[in-house]
Amino acid sequence: MSETTSSPLPRRIADAYLDALVELDPLTGTYLGVAESHSRLPDLSPAGQEDVAALARTTLERLAAAEELPGAEDAAERRCARLLRERLTALLAVHDAGEGLRALNNLASPPQEIRSVFTITPAATTGDWARIAERLRAVPACLDGYRASLAEGLRRGLTAGPRQVATVVEQLDSWVGADRSWFASFAADGPAELRTELDTAAALATGAFEDLRDWLRDTYAPAVQGTPDIAGRERYARWVRYFNGTDLNLEEAYAYGWSEFHRLLREMRAEAEKILPGAATPWEAIRHLDEHGQHLEGVEAARDWLQGLMDEAIEKLDGTHFDLAERVKRVESRVAPAGSAAAPYYTQPSVDFSRPGRTWLPATAEDRYPVYDLVSTWYHEGVPGHHLQLAQWTHVADRLSRYQATAGMVSANAEGWALYAERLMDELGFLTDPEHRIGYLDAQMMRAVRVIIDIGMHLELEIPADSPFHPGERWTPELAGEFFGRHSGRPKEFVESELIRYLGLPGQAIGYKLGERAWLRGREAARAAHGDGFDAKRWHMAALSLGSLGLDALEEELALL
Length: 561
Fold this sequence. Notes:
This protein is mainly alpha-helical. It contains 24 helices and five strands. Helix 1 (10-24) packs across helix 2 (26-32) and helix 3 packs antiparallel against helix 4.
């Protein structure tokens, strides 16, 4: 039976959902490259959030009917249906619990998302800048709706933690600026013929963020003082499902984090001995590298070097371990805008590749960048990490659905692939330099520590007897920060930023290591099934062309490739 407009199969329902979502959420539209979105911002009020939830409920009803149609058993339709149901169910669980009424954290809440969308909004023509001016003028109404949601959360006793509030107030302070705001600086790059319009619009946006800062500082912060920063088991489990696409056995995952901690510590000690013989800890060797290791001077020099690193990875991997389309081979190294989080990040290409995939390097106060800390990070953020997966999803979106390649992304799937990509480069011999390899191991250790402290502090679990740190005690955020600081080569401000991130995004940080485990298990199951006939290049390309899946579905599908 052929598909008709009146009886669409799951992939068409997924894309119809995406189109309707873009109408409600222009931020998603801009990431997709939808021109009509570039001048608008979403309604973040309680009513606007309910509109998004209502769309999810209606879509689930349509999906249930579609799965009864002939053709729905097709593998591509089945995978899309499974993802769509899981994602919308997880979204509704979060919405129905009122999480949108306390959406405030240091990395991925509305203030950061609204500011960040301007960095990827097209700005090549006068028409582009006219749309930017319109979007800047929309900031006050958008933030008014957001503040109404936070106020409703206060009324219901659904609040963000004090650490999140204090950190966001500091971020808003930096964006508003004492002399010139981030928005004024951003608008200054626009064309002269729109100078007055852009300056006026930037002032409106700045004033709206200033008002939000003042309200958070003077009204919201006092109201949440003394409330817990941790999520607790029920709320944590709900977010674990949202970020990982599966219901995890949290105690088993916590034990796995500890097993990886001990394995990585042994490897780090061996590598540290090559760098600084007799070092008391691996991090003493890393501190030695901070002073005496390879460095790049200046953020632009670091950006250029990272571009070269990604270009080299594409040249050496394409045709040997991957088969890459020409448009997937394009990736840009960028410097992150001022006021961003301390960690590097990646942004996916637009659906037509007019905006390429981009990695973003935060500038540091010292303007000096140790190479040991960059190599595996850019294998993670760029190639073969986030860029190869997310650009490949975009490339094959016509074979999947646009939803599977974009808005349906499961965090742990993407982060798991990126961490697997770091390990793959180690397996392929790209990390033989002791400096590069200890940096890779330190990055892996950070992801193992995340599993331990994210689960441990949100659930207040006991620290095991074989721990080198406070055995028998129960985790608190204070202990988590101390443990992270002792077992990381990252600077103090990074550790502090990360801890606040884990508290504000419960369940997200564990997806890196647990996602990597799903990718490794899937590969080993496929290898066992094929024996000597296992073709890693073919498997990688098939795996990267699956589109998004939750961790339970991902492991099952990878084993079948």
